[in-house]
Design goal:
Layout lengths: L1 H38 L3 H6 L1 E8 L6 E3 H13 L7 E9 L5 E10 L2 E12 L2 E11 L6 H22 L1
Parallel strand pairs: 1-6
Antiparallel strand pairs: 1-2, 3-4, 4-5, 5-6
């Protein structure tokens, strides 16, 4: 009796791990396809992989794009035949227990050199969709001081505007 119970638990664990790995492969493919759609200026495919209320946070402090606004901003880039080109060189994917929400981080090779992407993906009608994506430029710690000096004036003005809104 104990042996059969042990085997049942072991089999259940193995099936759960296999299901999780399959979901991660599907999510990996989604993210790679999403980046590929941007690099190949496939507007419909790119935005079809996002939720209707998806959010894209860009590298500029003012870039907090809701789906509709991000579509409008991006359309001219896609229409020119080249949007942006991101290639993942490292990616980590995590799933909740129900396997209907995932979050990830990725290191990207881009025209801006190394960047970091992270986000949330959720399952809608059996399909994974990107709900939230954050892009940031990776800055080596030893260069942060130079970067602060470079952006100090613009950040100070933006902070004043933001504080007025609160």
């Amino acid at each position: 009796m104990k042996n059969s119970m042990f085997l049942w638990v072991l089999m259940t664990l193995c099936l759960g791990l296999k299901a999780q790995e399959n979901e991660k492969k599907t999510i990996n493919k989604l993210l790679d396809s999403w980046h590929y759609a941007a690099a190949n200026a496939n507007f419909e495919s790119y935005f079809g992989m996002m939720t209707s209320n998806g959010v894209f946070i860009g590298t500029d402090a003012t870039e907090n794009w809701q789906n509709k606004a991000f579509r409008e901003f991006s359309k001219p880039y896609f229409d020119r035949g080249k949007a942006w080109s991101f290639t993942s060189v490292e990616r980590n994917i995590y799933l909740n227990e129900a396997k209907d929400i995932a979050w990830f981080d990725e290191l990207l090779d881009t025209q801006m050199k190394l960047c970091r992407g992270s986000g949330v993906i959720k399952k809608e009608n059996g399909q994974w969709k990107i709900a939230h994506y954050v892009l940031s430029i990776a800055v080596p710690n030893e260069n942060v001081g130079e970067l602060i000096q470079l952006k100090k004036e613009k950040d100070s003005l933006l902070l004043l505007d933001l504080k007025k809104k609160n």
